[in-house]
């Protein structure tokens, strides 16, 4: 009360002195002398209905003496104590907490479960001695117990459109004697600045938050996510109806490109909306005020001064909040209000295709968690592709994103149809299909949004809804979309699988109206439905790696190892690469290592080299470690080769009519006879459904996979289909399952396998 009425008390003393001079202008000694002559004239004076003009000289002198006594207490004890506490003392008593946290001051929250650290005080309450027995103390003495000290605070947040206030209550339980201020759960910001926080870093974090609210931003994030709201509640909500599968539900480590977008995030995850609740005043419990026992006693209800101070603060702040909450005015927090902004943003993680709450600011090593994506000097440089693949892809994407009006001509009969760019990349695994899409995105500085069948679902309605949502997000953010293993949704329709047909139809219709860039990758192009052929703008074939590509990949990886501080016997490894490739590509051997397998070999060999290096020594990468990796890989390939009865991956996929790894690029022809004449290994269609012609499949010659001799214990008799092959045009998997009879255990150089029609 004294703090609230400080100025009024001083003003009232001045009014009393003025009124006394009007009655009689005397010196202080003369006023005191006059008062001593009539000391009892103020005995029945009412302090609740005073008017200086209706008082006698003695009464005014008595009032002035009383008020000056109060003023001496305020100036001699209260003000110095307030000044000491306002400066942020090292220690504090529980009874002084009210002075430690003035209304409107900033506080720092030390609770690890509450991500928001800086708050502003709206109201102080509690911290009073109980005047009646509280419900929590059933027995014993309670009059020496105090209620918790309460701080009602707020911080600023963004709801996708406006800045709003988020309120939260902090409590400090009763304690005895002096306690270190820094040991409290919440402390004044001026105290936190002494080694706990850096104000400049917090201001920079707040400015970054403001920047991220202006529009969507493509960034790279490295750090942990938040799993709690700014005030410590659970961020994600999982229900049976809405499992929240596209939301990061727990704190996790992320190292991925992201799209920061508040507007879309709150639309996609409605429970992330921070709320817009009005402030509710703290109401003291009846045990604190003791109304039942002290109802008729002249004790001032001091909690009303807390409310009055809060009223004055809200009256001053409300116009500013109203401007921040009005869309279109362009108002953003200024000054110390920037400190009240969160250190988190909502973003879409491109790698996991999930919404997540990300921290902004610097990590423990001083690096920005959320940073701009640097454009690589030569994104296509490390990618070794055949022919003109790079220029063809780049020209299509450049044309799509160009502002040239001549490149925006619509050739479709129906507007808004067929305005996207769909590129199919097909071929053997590990030869750069996915990397092509990644390099295209980096070159054009566009986000790459990879999706899989797991992101879309298997139910036609679910697929259509998810696909439309992904297309909408991709177009909003100018993404390049990548659908890996696209054959799952693009497979040939059949007369028996209605659900499969519905999925394919949904995909066909959706592709027609997609306006962005979409890459489709597959190593099973033979199963594609023919309707997709006309919807694909360009199809690029990726054959098995050639020798020059293999050498370049090895050189690139060797250089990366050298740049990483690894000692590499480069010439020896390049010779090993050449020898390995030639052995693997020899007749009767194979397949050659693809790019992914070469990379995996480097990782495994480096792990072996590091394991065998002595502590403190430079790791040396040489041929012997790659030979170990090669031998292990060869054993697995040999096992698969025997499981498939001597068929290589290429032969297996050829038989299944999935793809042709021996495809020879040349003049296109629909004449099967000419095709067979020009390409003896070419694929030919079966003459009638359900029939596959008799053929002889030669067993691999000694040398086998990777140039190693394989055990030739393949039975040569009794091979026949175990069941009807079915119509080879009705399904993506046409590989027959053979059963051996009369296993002789003798070796054979050829396996005559005759297929009979059902």
What is the count of helical runs? 21
Q: CA-to-CA gap between the ends?
A: 101 Å
Total domains: 5
Strand-pairing-aware structural class: alpha+beta
Question: Share of helix among residues?
Answer: 25-40%
Rounded to the nearest angstrom, the radius of gyration is: 40 Å
Morphology call: elongated
- Note the beta-strand portion: 15-25%
Number of strands: 23
pLDDT < 50 runs, ≥5 residues: 672-758
If you average the pLDDT, what whole number results? 79
Note the main sheet: 5 strands, antiparallel
Instruction: Provide the spatial order of strands within the biggest beta sheet.
Output: 5-4-3-2-7
Please describe the topology of this protein:
Blueprint: H1 6-23, H2 28-37, H3 57-86, E1 91-93, H4 97-100, E2 106-109, E3 118-126, E4 149-158, E5 163-172, E6 178-180, E7 186-188, H5 189-192, H6 199-212, E8 217-226, E9 253-260, H7 262-268, H8 286-289, H9 303-324, E10 344-349, E11 354-359, E12 370-371, H10 389-401, E13 421-427, H11 433-443, E14 448-451, H12 453-456, H13 460-476, E15 480-483, H14 487-490, H15 498-513, E16 517-522, E17 538-542, H16 547-563, E18 567-568, H17 570-584, H18 595-612, E19 620-621, H19 623-643, H20 649-655, H21 672-678, E20 695-698, E21 720-721, E22 738-739, E23 750-753
Parallel strand pairs: 13-16, 13-17, 14-15, 15-16, 18-19
Antiparallel strand pairs: 1-6, 2-3, 2-7, 3-4, 4-5, 8-9, 8-11, 8-12, 9-10, 10-11, 20-23, 21-22
Helix pairs in contact: 1-3, 2-3, 13-15, 16-17, 16-18, 18-19
């Amino acid at each position: 009360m004294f703090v609230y009425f400080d100025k009024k008390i001083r003003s009232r003393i001045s009014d009393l002195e003025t009124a006394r001079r009007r009655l009689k202008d005397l010196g202080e000694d003369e006023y005191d002398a006059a008062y001593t002559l009539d000391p009892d004239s103020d005995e029945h004076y009412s302090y609740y209905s005073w008017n200086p003009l209706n008082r006698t000289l003695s009464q005014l002198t008595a009032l002035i003496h009383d008020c000056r006594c109060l003023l001496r207490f305020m100036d001699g004890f209260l003000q110095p104590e307030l000044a000491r506490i306002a400066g942020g003392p090292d220690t504090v008593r529980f009874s002084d907490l009210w002075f430690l946290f003035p209304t409107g001051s900033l506080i720092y929250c030390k609770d690890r479960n509450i991500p928001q650290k800086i708050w502003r005080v709206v109201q102080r309450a509690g911290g009073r001695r109980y005047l009646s027995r509280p419900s929590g103390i059933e027995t014993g003495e309670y009059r020496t117990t105090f209620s918790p000290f309460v701080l009602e605070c707020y911080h600023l947040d963004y709801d996708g459109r406006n800045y709003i206030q988020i309120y939260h209550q902090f409590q400090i339980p009763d304690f005895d004697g002096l306690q270190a201020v820094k040991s409290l759960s919440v402390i004044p910001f001026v105290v936190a600045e002494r080694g706990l926080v850096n104000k400049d870093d917090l201001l920079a974090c707040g400015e970054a938050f403001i920047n991220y609210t202006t529009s969507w931003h493509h960034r790279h994030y490295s750090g942990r996510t938040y799993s709690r709201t700014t005030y410590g509640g659970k961020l994600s909500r999982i229900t049976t109806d809405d499992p929240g599968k596209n939301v990061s539900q727990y704190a996790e480590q992320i190292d991925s490109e992201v799209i920061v977008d508040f507007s879309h995030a709150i639309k996609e995850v409605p429970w992330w909306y921070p709320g817009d609740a009005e402030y509710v005043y703290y109401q003291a419990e009846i045990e604190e005020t003791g109304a039942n026992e002290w109802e008729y006693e002249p004790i001032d209800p001091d909690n009303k001064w807390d409310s009055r101070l809060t009223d004055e603060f809200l009256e001053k702040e409300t116009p500013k909040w109203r401007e921040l909450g009005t869309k279109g005015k362009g108002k953003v927090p200024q000054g110390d209000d920037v400190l009240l902004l969160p250190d988190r943003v909502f973003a879409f993680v491109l790698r996991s295709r999930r919404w997540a709450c990300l921290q902004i600011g610097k990590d423990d090593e001083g690096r920005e968690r959320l940073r701009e994506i640097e454009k690589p000097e030569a994104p296509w440089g490390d990618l070794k592709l055949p022919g003109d693949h790079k220029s063809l892809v780049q020209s299509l994407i450049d044309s799509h994103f160009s502002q040239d009006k001549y490149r925006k001509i619509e050739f479709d009969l129906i507007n808004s149809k067929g305005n996207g760019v769909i590129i199919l990349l097909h071929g053997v695994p590990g030869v750069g299909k996915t990397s092509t899409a990644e390099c295209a995105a980096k070159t054009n500085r566009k986000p790459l949004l990879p999706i899989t069948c797991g992101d879309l679902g298997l139910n036609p309605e679910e697929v259509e809804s998810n696909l439309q949502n992904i297309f909408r997000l991709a177009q909003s953010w100018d993404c390049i979309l990548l659908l890996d293993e696209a054959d799952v949704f693009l497979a040939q329709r059949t007369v028996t699988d209605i659900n499969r047909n519905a999925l394919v139809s949904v995909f066909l219709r959706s592709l027609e109206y997609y306006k962005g860039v979409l890459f489709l990758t597959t190593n099973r192009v033979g199963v594609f439905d023919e309707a997709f052929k006309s919807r694909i703008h360009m199809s690029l074939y990726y054959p098995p790696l050639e020798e020059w590509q293999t050498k370049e990949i090895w050189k690139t990886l060797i250089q990366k190892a050298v740049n990483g501080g690894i000692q590499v016997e480069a010439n020896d490894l390049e010779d090993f690469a050449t020898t390995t490739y030639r052995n693997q590509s020899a007749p009767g051997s194979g397949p050659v290592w693809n790019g992914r397998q070469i990379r995996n070999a480097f990782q495994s060999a480096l792990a072996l080299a590091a394991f065998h290096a002595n502590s403190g020594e430079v790791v040396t990468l040489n041929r012997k470690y790659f030979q170990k990796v090669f031998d292990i890989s060869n054993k697995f390939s040999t096992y698969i080769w025997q499981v498939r009865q001597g068929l290589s991956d290429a032969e297996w996929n050829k038989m299944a009519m999935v793809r042709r790894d021996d495809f020879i690029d040349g003049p296109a022809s629909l004449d099967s006879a000419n095709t067979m004449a020009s390409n003896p290994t070419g694929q030919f269609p079966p003459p009638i459904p359900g029939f596959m012609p008799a053929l002889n499949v030669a067993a691999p010659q000694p040398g086998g996979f990777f140039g190693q001799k394989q055990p030739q214990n393949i039975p040569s008799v009794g091979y026949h289909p175990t069941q009807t092959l079915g119509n080879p045009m009705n399904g993506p998997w046409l590989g027959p399952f053979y059963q051996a009879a009369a296993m002789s255990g003798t070796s054979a150089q050829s396996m005559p396998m005759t297929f009979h029609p059902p």
